Structures are given as structure tokens and as C-alpha cells.
Amino acid sequence: MGSTGRTYGQVVGLTGALLPVVSFLGRLPTATIQFGSVLLVARTSGSLGAAGLTGGALAVGQVACGPLVGRLADRHGQRTVVLAFSLANAVAIAGLVAGALAGLPTPLLALLGAAAGATVPLIGPLGRARLVALARRADAPDTTIGAALSFESTLDEISFVLGPALVGVAAVVAHPAYAMGAAAVLVAVCGTAFALHPTATATATRNGPVATPGKGRSGSVATRARRRSGTVPTPAPRRSGTVPTPTLRRSSPVPTPTPRRPRAVPTPPTRPRIPRTVHALRAALALQGAMFGACQAGITALTEHLGQSEQAGLVYAAMGVMSAVAGFCMAAVPGRIALVTRWRAATAAAFLLSLPLLWTDSLAGLYAVVTVLGVAYAPHLITVFGLTERAVPPARLAEAMAFATSAIVGGQALAVALTGRLAESHGPVAAFATASTAAALACAIALAARPASYTGRATESVHHARVPDERPGTPA
Q1: What is the three-state SS of 353-377?
Q2: Is residue 283 over pLDDT 90?
Q3: Does a structural domain hold residue 192?
Q4: Which of 431, 423, 410 is nearest to 63 (CA)?
Q5: How many angstroms separate the CA atoms of 317 and 31, rounded?
Q6: How far from chain centre, in Å, is Cα 199?
Q7: Model confidence at 190, in pLDDT bands (50, 70, 90)?
Q8: 411 and 291 in one domain?
Q9: What is the pLDDT of residue 461?
Q10: 362-387, pLDDT tens digit by residue?
Q11: Is the distance from CB of 305 to CB of 128 less than 8 angstroms?
Q12: Can you give the residue range of the structural domain that contains 146?
């Protein structure tokens, strides 16, 4: 663990100690409002249907607008985008809390939930893109890049374990509205701090404004050349109260007016395309989210069947903690093991480790199986994010990370909605079978896909050096 600690020390050294703290606290509201909105509406309206509709609308808003947030960050920089969305998200969450406490109709609550999801500032994906950009600029080795992705995924895992737990505690002790209010304050304060941190310009485009050809402080290039040759009058120094008159050299011919050339209009730079191989990675992440969502539905159904529904949250936490530990240990994986190999191993492990869920019928067995299954969750996410970082153009990195996160959230939300009904009608085995099927499909994609590194570096910034997937350390 000594080398792993040094590697993570290098990662923190890229940003300083403050940014990881701000980043973690800033992404905690994202994990809080999904579960918190369901509990809040269920408590205030007494309707699980209204609560599910509000939570679903929140997830749809995040999935639909997440890539837009990333695209805006790529185009305009993270500082402005994160600042605007953090403040808007705080207002939207506060509006949802106020609407729920006021007893608004379900359609209006769903609309407020969609607004809360659409304005999520996506500090997790943008923090991941920022940290990778800082590592690339510092010419960090590939092991540091992998450690940066592991570090960010570990923060995500901890936030998604701690967020629902805090909501649950608030619901038992007082009211879910307190947890939602705290989320609004956190996203406003920590989102602002994340936006204003000096590293916010790490992913900004270094290309300055396109200069108009032939123009400058002294006029056109041709005019400056004629001045030097003496064929163009040179303005005399301006004196106060006098009008300058041109002075001509005796040996110079009288200049004839030259026809004006049409001013060249700068063409905007073309946006680099996202390679098609990225779609396979996004599909794998959506299936990973579906697997987790199906496991959630199955765990809820099984604990209720056993008469211990209050244990469901602790089972989720056990899976999340083990996933976070596995993600933290990913920095110790030797660099000679290619990312594609890691991807296939992680998906195969997720499929094999999910099969015992089909025969689990006790609480102790559920704890054991789910905790072991968590070992495969974070390594898969870290590896696919690493492949995504290598496959996309650097100018669209934040958008790609946001899209990947939206794929996970969308797959999870859809699976929870569908497998929840399956579990009600056919028992928890149906939900667990759906989880294993999703894992099998993800494994099939990993075996069939051939993600390659981005090859358009010639048109990109020079500080985005890349390394190949199969042989780390060699020039791309």
C-alpha cells in the first residue's frame, strides 16, 4: 500500500488538499436529492405514487440535461457553468421542498423535481475531467491518470453511500425536508467554491480568438510594408489643438489609392466528433446502472419479504463501502494490465458474483453476497471512465464524462421502475435475474467492443498527451 499511497499523494498534489474536500461535499447533494425527494413527497402527500413520479422526473431531468452541462463546460469553461448551475440547483431544491410542504398537486411536484434534476451541476463528472486535465498538463504518468480516476470514483461511491444514509437518519429523527434543505445549502456553498477554485481553468480551451488576417495595431500587413518602403504617407505626431497633415518624401511618388480587399471572416473551429466506439462504453455503463437498480429493487423486496425492511439501507451501504474499497485499491493494479483486459475481467466478475443472488433467501446470505458483489462495481466504472477519457477528443472530455454519468443514472432509474413491479408480482428472484442479465450483456459488450485511443491529437492542444490502451508508457 506504500506505492498506492504515494500515487494518491501525487493525485492530491495536482489540486491541493482543499479541492477534494469541496468536490466531495459539492457532489453529496446529488446523491441526497434522489432518495430525499421520494421520502419528502411520500411524507408530505402520503402517496407513494406521487413520490415515485417526483423521483422519476428528477432522474429524467438529470439524464436529459447532464450532457448539456458537460458540453457547456467544454465550450465556456467550468467556472461559469458550475457557478450558474450550482445556484440554480439550490433554488430548484428549495422550491421542491417548499412545494412539497405546501401540498402542491403531483404534476407540479413532478415539474419541480424535473427542474431539480435538470440543474444538477454534475460536480462529479466535471471534477473527474478537471483532475485528468491537470494530470495531462503536468505530464503525469499513466499510473497517476488511473489513480485520479480511482480517486474520483471512490469519492462518488462514498457520496452515494453517505447521501441516502443521511436522508434516512433525517427522516427518522426529524423530517426529510431538513436533509433536502441541507443539500440546497451544500450545493450553493460548495458548488460555488468548486467553481471559483483556481483549477477551474484547467479544462479551458487555450486557443485564443481567431485574429482577422491582415489586421493589427498598425493597420494591414501590406500597409505597414508600404510605409517601410516610403510609398505611404506616415502620419505626423499629433499636437494639441492642431490637425495633423501628411508629410511626403520628395523622392516618393504620389500614392494612388489601392482597392480595399474584402475582410477575411474567421471561420469557427469545428467540433471534433465523438468516436463510435464510445457508444459501446456508454451502453456498458447504462447496463451497470441497470444492474445496480435491479439489485436495489431485489434487496428491497427480499428484506420486506423477510420482515426486516429497515435493513435495506444497510445492505446498500455494505455494497457501496466494499465498492469504494475496491475502487481505492485499483491504483495498485500493475500498469502492464491493459484497460480492455481490466474491463472484461470486471464485467465477467460482476456477472459471476451476481448469480448467487438467485438462490439467496436469508438476510445473512444477502449481506454476504451483496458485499462480495460490490468488489466488481467500482473497478468496472473506473475502467470504463478510463477508456472513455482515452477515446474522446480532449475538447469534449467534460461532455463525455457527463454523458457517461447520465447513462448510469438513466439505466439505474429505468431498472428500478421496471424491476420494482417485477419484484412485486414475481418476487425478488425476478429482480435479481434482471440484474444478472444486465451484467451478462455488459460482459458481452466488453468482449465484443474494441475501444481505441483518440487519434485526432494533431488538431488538439499539445498538452493532452495520450497513451495507448494496450501498452501503457509507449508513445501513442
Answers
A1: HHHHHHHCCCHHHHHHHHHHHHHHH
A2: yes
A3: yes
A4: 410
A5: 13
A6: 16
A7: very high
A8: yes
A9: 39
A10: 999 999 999 999 898 888 888 888 88
A11: no
A12: 16-202
- 236, part of any domain: no
C-beta of residue 121 within 8 angstroms of C-beta of residue 394: no
How do residues 144-165 score in pLDDT, each as one tens digit? 777 887 788 778 777 877 777 7
CA nearest to 261, candidates 209, 210, 215, 211: 215
Using one digit for the tens of pLDDT, what is the confidence trace for 338-367? 888 999 999 999 999 999 999 998 999 999
pTM: 0.71
Is the pLDDT at 220 greater than 50, yes or no?
no
What is residue 175's predicted lDDT score, i.e. its pLDDT? 86
Q: Are residues 67 and 173 in the same domain?
A: yes
Q: Are residues 165 and 39 in the same domain?
A: yes
- How long a stretch of residues is the chain? 476
The grid coordinates of residue 445 equal 459488450
The total of structural domains in the chain comes to 2
Give the confidence band of 466 by pLDDT, cuts at 50, 70, 90: very low
Q: Let me know if residue 473 belongs to a domain.
A: yes
Record the cell numbers describing residue 200, joined without a space.
Answer: 477551474
Distance, in Å, from the CA atom of 325 to the CA atom of 319, rounded to the nearest integer, reads: 10
Which tens digits make up the pLDDT trace of 14-58?
888 888 899 999 988 988 888 788 888 888 888 767 877 888 889
The reply to whether 252 falls in a domain is no
- Which cell is 280 given? 459501446
Query: Could you tell me how far CA 228 lies from the centroid of its own chain?
Result: 55
157 and 296 together in one domain: no
